């Protein structure tokens, strides 16, 4: 009986991860500090891209598997994307905004304490794809 309870608990936990709502008001915001920084659960990047950096990044992000726009747009000057892991559907949130000629990106996890560098790797791949 205990085994079935534990299995049900795991299934419910995975369902919550997959189905938990992503509230734009919580995730579509800028951090207090927006300088380059690697963190245990995410990354901050600031890159001189010129004024079209966000538009170029948006094209790359939208082409990334399992990634969708949560809020914002290039014309608004800030976009937040949700990228889900392949197997369990863990959501990661990436907010990018144009600050003059500087593109600023904040990627972070929602669940857990560490993303094992996943957000850093994705953001660095996106930046490489736009030539930075």
TrEMBL record:
Q: Which domain of life is it from?
A: Bacteria
Q: What is the lineage of its organism?
A: Bacteria, Pseudomonadati, Pseudomonadota, Alphaproteobacteria, Rhodobacterales
**Name of the featured protein:** Uncharacterized conserved protein, DUF1499 family
Identify the species of origin.
Ruegeria marina
Which is one Pfam family of this protein? Answer: DUF1499
